[in-house]
Amino acid sequence: MTGGPYGGCVINSGAGLTLYTTLGCHLCEELEAWLARLGPQAPPLRRVEIADDPALLARYGERIPVLEDAMGEALERGFEPARLAAWLEARGWLDHAALQRVQGADAPAEPESEGAVMHNGRRYLGGLGGSRGED
Questions:
Q1: CB 3.0 to 4.6 Å from 12: which of 46, 66, 75, 78, for a disulfide?
Q2: How far apart are CA 95 and CA 42, in angstroms?
């Protein structure tokens, strides 16, 4: 581990992509899963822990996950497959066959948590539990 550009903790330094993240960030984990699936040609990923640095926390705290390329161009909400695919495509890193498999699959386009229920565009873990239609 070494110091990052803002003094934060960096894992796997020397890579071409930077993921600003923090421990327990499930959206960061989703982004990494989609990146591995849609962008296997992308440069190696380094993770920057924002919680260890007040400047990083102030800059990225409510925006993570943020994926940044070597030129400093950032992608927010990269856990959304369509956004990540467009970002990867612009850099020549998109695996088109993988994208077609994702788009053509019978399964949902996004990884689902076990026991999750979709309702009105929102994902509820553990089901809705009678909250629908009650005052």
A1: 46
A2: 9
